[in-house]
């Protein structure tokens, strides 16, 4: 059974850092999947934060210079290191595994940026 489990969310002060993890299980050829991080604020659409496609990383403009995505294809885990967090970064952060024929989502982890 395919599963994505996010962890690492929590309460952090503005300007602080947080590292999210997404552990994947049940995947065949995990390295063949495009792995992405999304975030969603209640009442708003889910938005892309970062993606890992092969050895290439793409970031949303708001994430460039502050967020770093990485993946470990041996541990079947992806990470999102977030620094200089802002209050508008408060959201549920989701992990997604994608291939043209299939897409899987985790249940998300809540990040709250507040003093």
- Work out the strand percent: over 45%
- Order of H and E elements: EEEEEEEEEEE
The helical percent reads: under 10%
**General shape:** globular
Q: Tell me the span between the first and last alpha carbons.
A: 40 Å
Largest sheet: 7 strands, mixed
Mean pLDDT: 96
Structural class: mainly beta
Radius of gyration: 13 Å
Instruction: Find the count of extended strands (DSSP E, 2+ residues).
Output: 11
Q: Which residue ranges are poorly predicted, with pLDDT under 50 across at least 5 consecutive positions?
A: none
Count of separate DSSP helical elements: 0
Task: Detail the topology: elements first, then pairings.
Blueprint: E1 3-7, E2 10-12, E3 18-25, E4 34-40, E5 47-53, E6 56-59, E7 67-72, E8 77-82, E9 91-99, E10 102-105, E11 109-113
Parallel strand pairs: 2-11
Antiparallel strand pairs: 1-3, 3-8, 4-5, 4-9, 5-6, 7-8, 9-10, 9-11
In words, what does this structure look like?
There is one protein chain. This protein is mainly β and 115 residues long. The protein is built from no helices and 11 strands. The protein has strands at residues 3-7, 10-12, 18-25, 34-40, 47-53, 56-59, 67-72, 77-82, 91-99, 102-105, 109-113. The strands form 2 sheets. Strands 2, 4, 5, 6, 9, 10 and 11 form a 7-stranded mixed sheet that branches. A 4-stranded antiparallel sheet has the order 1-3-8-7, with no helix packed on it. Strand 9 and strand 10 (102-105) form a beta hairpin. 27% of the residues are buried. The model has no long low-confidence stretch (mean pLDDT 96).
